Structure formats: C-alpha cells, structure tokens
C-alpha cells in the first residue's frame, strides 16, 4: 500500500488519499524529487508541500509553528536557505519542542523499563543483579 500524502491542514485530504496532490497519481520518487510531497522533519509523515488551504505543512507540525520551513520556501519559490529572523525563531522553537518530545518519550521508556523490572519474580531479580555485576554464567 502506498503511503498517504496529506496536507493535513486541508479538510479535503481524502480527495487524494494514496495520491500526490499535484500529479493525481500514487506518490513516487518523482513526486519527492519535484517537491510535490515530502516527509515531515519532525514525525516522518508525508504531506503535500504545495497546499491549497491554510498555509500547509504536516498536521502535527505545520509551517506556521516553524516546522518544515525549507519546504515552505520551496512552495513560495524562494531559496530554501533564505530565512527571516522570524523563521529562525520559529525553527528554534520547533527544535526545542522536538527535543522536549524526545525527552518525554525517553522518560516514558525508562518508566516502562522500571515498571517491568518491578514485575520480575525474586528469582529473575537475583539473576538480573548477577548479570549486571558480570557474575552470571550459563
């Protein structure tokens, strides 16, 4: 099954499910090379670069919040590295948010691991301590 490109800001994204918003075909390498669709830098979702409504971008990470600004520049037919102070500030905020999200995911994973360790039987805990000390032999 082909990935679903979406301009997640658009209500009519179902009009081209499984299709490039510009070619009206399944997204291909050509669609990515010509910047019809792109992967979101923050979450990896595919979105239509040239949105017809709401400024565009990924649903979770729209251009207006500082994400995928290089694609916004392509949409506007400007050089991708041409950034205003406002764009740079939005990028900083977006990167900080991505770092905070990553730290949150790490903390959740650590909590899950701790919870799992608490659920071990006493025999399993003893074995785990020996393994951690390097004294366990099969």
From TrEMBL:
Region (Disordered) location: 104-127
Superkingdom of source: Eukaryota
Record's protein name: Uncharacterized protein
């Amino acid at each position: 099954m082909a990935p679903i490109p979406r301009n997640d800001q658009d209500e009519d994204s179902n009009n081209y499910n499984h299709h490039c918003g510009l070619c009206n075909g399944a997204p291909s390498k050509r669609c990515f090379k010509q910047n019809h669709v792109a992967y979101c830098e923050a979450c990896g979702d595919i979105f239509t670069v040239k949105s017809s409504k709401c400024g565009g971008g990924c649903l979770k990470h729209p251009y207006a919040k500082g994400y995928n600004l290089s694609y916004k520049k392509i949409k506007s037919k400007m050089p991708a590295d041409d950034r205003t102070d406002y764009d740079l500030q939005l990028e900083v905020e977006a990167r900080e948010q991505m770092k905070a999200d990553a730290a949150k995911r790490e903390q959740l994973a650590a909590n899950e691991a701790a919870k799992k360790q608490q659920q071990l039987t006493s025999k399993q805990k003893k074995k785990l301590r020996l393994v951690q000390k390097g004294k366990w032999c099969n």
